Amino acid sequence: MSLPITKVAACHIAPVWLDTKATIQKAIEWIREAHSNGAQLVCFPETFVPCYPSWTALKAPVDNHDLFHKLCDESIYVDGPEIMAIQQVCLELNIIVCLGFNEKSRFSVGCLWNSYVLIGDDGSIMAHHRKIMPTYLEKLIWAPGDGAGLTVCDTKIGKIGALICGENTNPLAKYTLIGQGEQIHLSLWPAYSITRRPGDGVNYDLDHATKIRSACQAFEAKTFTVVCSNFFDESAREFFKKDDPANADCYDNISQCSTLFMDPSGTQIGESLKDKEGIAYCTFDLNKIVELKQIQDLAGYYQRYDVFKLSVDRTPAVPVRFLEDPATALTYPKPVKKETI
């Protein structure tokens, strides 16, 4: 048995703030750069398109209407031209891409989801996931997703699964991927978290928490893991300070999250980035999973399926389901347009 060896790229990258067209173009440029450096899989961070709406940490909802309206305007449909542009690049370059984005709803102009797509090297969408539960302040922006995207995709470079931000803390979501034989886990994150103002106690260390969560999945699932975080650049900082000058000190003192890789033992490997924008690279040799699976395999012999039973509903959520019997449908006559002489 010989498993794939693949080069992976994680984009520690800032969007062009609230500008979807420019952000998609930036993503395409970085995909091309990663491809030129031999990457077969490229990962982008949480809601990269058009941004992670972190203003909700400091601004009250009553002050956020304009920003939310702009976010809705710049958010995209999963079957829209922006995602198709990435699909075309994947087909052209024969490369796999995971892209985080703010997703619009066809049913509501004010409903958004925190989503990702995994696009195959043939340009097809292999997985489309909506974060099952927004975390903390995110509930002011995103609707809860569903289980439809809790899937692991079998590709030529390995079995790939992904979770968004706090989902990487959810044991049931994580085991759903483990139980499908996940070999490469993609973990998508924001650039930072603000839970306290400077001087008002210890701020929640999202970078530390991210590493714990990701190492846990790597160790328990025996996967190679990508930790891909947004980057908070100077243009974003200036945008926030201009929009919210009362909290300028918070934006000047944020601590960035890291982008990095872990092997199936939970050990950090490959390149990493934190305080500068760029692409981190790592080579995954999936053959190294086998020995660790022999020691402990939660998807195999080290599990008690007779004791523990997990059911996951992967039915896509829709606002309303219509139950109709065609045999009982009423028909209505239509008027006939009279010819005029």
TrEMBL record:
<feature type="domain" description="CN hydrolase">
    <location>
        <begin position="6"/>
        <end position="286"/>
    </location>
</feature>
<protein>
    <recommendedName>
        <fullName>CN hydrolase domain-containing protein</fullName>
    </recommendedName>
</protein>
<dbReference type="InterPro" id="IPR044149">
    <property type="entry name" value="Nitrilases_CHs"/>
</dbReference>
<dbReference type="Pfam" id="PF00795">
    <property type="entry name" value="CN_hydrolase"/>
</dbReference>
<dbReference type="InterPro" id="IPR036526">
    <property type="entry name" value="C-N_Hydrolase_sf"/>
</dbReference>
<comment type="similarity">
    <text>Belongs to the carbon-nitrogen hydrolase superfamily. Nitrilase family.</text>
</comment>
<dbReference type="GO" id="GO:0003824">
    <property type="term" value="F:catalytic activity"/>
</dbReference>
<dbReference type="InterPro" id="IPR003010">
    <property type="entry name" value="C-N_Hydrolase"/>
</dbReference>
